[in-house]
Amino acid sequence: MNNQQRIDPFLDTLWSERGLSHHTLAAYRHDLTRLVNWLTAIRLSDLAQSKR
């Protein structure tokens, strides 16, 4: 499973369970994408490998 495949279900859950707005979800997507890019840059390319 790639990182985008992990982010999408997470955001879907936030939308369905908490009713977050489109703008909030877009901000979360942006932040998570930046996190993935940073992890890739430090060679920890899979979110499943992160400790937290």
Radius of gyration: 12 Å
Structural class: mainly alpha
The parts where pLDDT drops under 50 for at least 5 residues are: none
**Topology, number of strands:** 0
Count of helix runs: 2
Strand content: under 5%
The termini sit apart by: 18 Å
Shape: elongated
Run of helices and strands: HH
Residue share in helices? Answer: 55-70%
General description of the model:
With 52 residues, the protein is mostly helical. It has a domain at 1-12 and 20-43. Helices cover 69% and strands 0% of the residues. The chain is built from two helices and no strands. It has helices spanning 3-18, 22-41. Helix 1 (3-18) packs antiparallel against helix 2 (22-41). The model has no long low-confidence stretch (mean pLDDT 84).
Write a brief caption for the model.
With 52 residues, the protein is mainly alpha-helical.
Core attributes:
single chain, 52 residues, mainly alpha, 2 helices, 69% helix
SSE topology:
Blueprint lengths: L2 H16 L3 H20 L11
Helix pairs in contact: 1-2
